[in-house]
Amino acid sequence: MPGITLTLSGEEDRVLARSLAGEITTLTCDVLEKLPSNTMVMVKFLPDDLWFIDSRSLADYGRKSFRLEVTITDETTTKDQKARYQRAAFDLLSEKIGNVHPHSNVHVIDCRADAYSYGGVTQEYRYHHG
Fold first, then answer.
1. For the CA atoms of the chain, what is the radius of gyration?
2. Which of 4, 9, 14, 85 could disulfide-pair with 41, CB 3.0 to 4.6 Å?
């Protein structure tokens, strides 16, 4: 059950958000072996002049950036899968957004199964009663 938050620099762009939500869902499910029907994506935008790296805004740098956070249940993917995912996601977003600052990042968050749920049921419970 990936919970995905994609924060993009720049002004709100609903067309870009919808496109990237679909592409990130597909990539996440393919590489990390997850189900699209259990994948949630939230896309947020932050103006370039409010995103800082080394105390300078992206507007100052003349660059774009992103932060992709993917929460998954701990011990459901391998280190190799996560490494492949991080590379592929970084490449995909860099290509789609263009002119990204190298500090743009992908963060895979492993969450304990007893601390992660949807529909009010933990992943731990689903595993044992599934």
1. 16
2. 4
